[in-house]
Amino acid sequence: xxxxxxxxxxxxxxxxxxxxxxxxxxxxxxxxxxxxxxxxxxxxxxxxxxxxxxxxxxxxxxxxxxxxxxxxxxxxxxxxxxxxxxxxxxxxxxxxxxxxxxxxxxxxxxxxxxxxxxxxxxxxxxxxxxxxxxxxxxxxxxxxxxxxxxxxxxxxxxxxxxxxxxxxxxxxxxxxxxxxxxxxxxxxxxxxxxxxxxxxxxxxxxxxxxxxxxxxxxxxxxxxxxxxxxxxxxxxxxxxxxxxxxxxxxxxxxxxxxxxxxxxxxxxxxxxxxxxxxxxxxxxxxxxxxxxxxxxxxxxxxxxxxxxxxxxxxxxxxxxxxxxxxxxxxxxxxxxxxxxxxxxxxxxxxxxxxxxxxxxxxxxxxxxxxxxxxxxxxxxxxxxxxxxxxxxxxxxxxxxxxxxxxxxxxxxxxxxxxxxxxxx
Length: 424
Known about the structure:
Layout: H1 21-25, H2 29-39, H3 43-55, H4 74-96, E1 99-102, E2 106-112, E3 115-120, E4 123-126, E5 132-138, E6 143-152, E7 158-169, H5 172-177, H6 182-199, H7 203-207, H8 211-226, E8 233-244, H9 250-319, H10 321-337, E9 343-345, E10 352-354, H11 357-374, H12 384-397, H13 405-408, H14 414-423
Antiparallel strand pairs: 1-4, 2-3, 2-5, 6-7, 7-8, 9-10
Helix pairs in contact: 3-4, 6-8, 9-10, 11-12
C-alpha cells in the first residue's frame, strides 16, 4: 500500500507529516497530512530546515509544536534566512580569496589537487581556493652559482680554480617538478664539468693563454650534462674567477707570466715599427717605379722626336749634303761646347788661350756682394780689378769672328770650319 493512500492505515507513512500531529491538535489524519504537504512546498526550505536541525535545532524541533500549531512558522523562516546569508557570505569570501597577482618578472605554476595544471602569465588572475595552488617563479633574473677548489691538471700539477656560473629559469614546470633540488644538481654538474676540462689541460695553458678556451669547453660540457635531466635552467655565461698555482710555485709562475707579457710587448712594438716602415718603403718603391716609367717614356719620346727630326732632315741632306752636314756639325759642337769650359783657339799659331769665364763671373759676383755689404753710405768708384776681367772676355770672345753665329745664323762658322772640312 502506498504511503499516501487514504485511510487511517497510511497515517504513519507520510514522510513529511507528524505522526502525532492529529492527536495533539485534536484533528484527524487528513489534517496532519495536509500540514506536511504545505511544509514540503519548497525543497530549498526543507534542505535549510534539515541543515538547521543538524546544526543545533535553529529551524525548530521535529514535530508540530510551533506556537501557531503548524510546522514551518516564523522561527523557521528566520533561521532559513540566517543560514542563507551565512552561506552567501562564505561564497563571497571564498570567491574573493581566489584573486592573486603575478609580478612582471615571474610566471605562476598552477597545481590542481597537487597535480600540474597550467602556467599563468604576469598580471591579475583568479583560482578556486582550496582547489588550485599557485607558486610564482622568477624567470628573468640572472642567478649565479660559484664553485671551485684544488684540481689536478693533465701534467700532474695542482691548480686552484674558482668558477662562476650565471643562469636563468627557462621552464618553471621542469624547474619545480623534474629535479628535487635544482641548485644542488647544478652545482654538482658544474664541479664535474670543470674538473673534466681542467684534467685534460696543462697548468701553464690554464694560467696563461687558454683560459678563454677552457671557459668555452666548460660551458659546453655543463650544458651537455644538465640537458638530459630537464632541469628547466639555461646557462647564460661561465666565468673563471680565480685560476692560480699553489703558493709553493706561485713565484715561478709569476716570472713566467711576466716574461710572456714582455714577449707580447716586444711583438707589439715590432708590429708598430713594421706598420710605420712598410708603408713608407712601399711608397718609395712606387715613386721609383713611377720615375722609371716617366724616364722611359721621356727617352722613348725623345728618341722618337730625334728620329722624326732626322726623317725631316733627310730630304734636305739629299738635296744639299755639304750644307746639311756642316749645319749638323755646327749644331752638335754648339751643344757640346755649351756644357764645357770656353776655349778660344788662334788658327794663325800654335798658341791657345783658355778663359775660365765661369770662375771669373763667380768671383765677380762674390766681390760685388761683399762690396755691397761693406760699402759706406757713399758708393765708391768701381775698381779695375772687378771690371776688367768681365769686359775683356765679352769684347774678345763674343766678337763677330767668334760666336757671331748666334746672331747671324751659321754664317759666322763658315770661315773657320770650312777649311777644316775641306782638309778632311
